[in-house]
Write a structure and sequence with these properties.
The chain is mostly helical. It contains one helix and no strands. The termini are far apart.
Length: 37
Amino acid sequence: MGKDHPQGVGADGSHAEFLAYSENLLRQLVDFRLFEI
């Protein structure tokens, strides 16, 4: 929606976008740990 910075999410009250961003980060961390094992 024209937002480049995740830190700006939530200014308009869209928590769904922030949750999706956090979930994406968590998935990357989990994938990284799985590959490391």
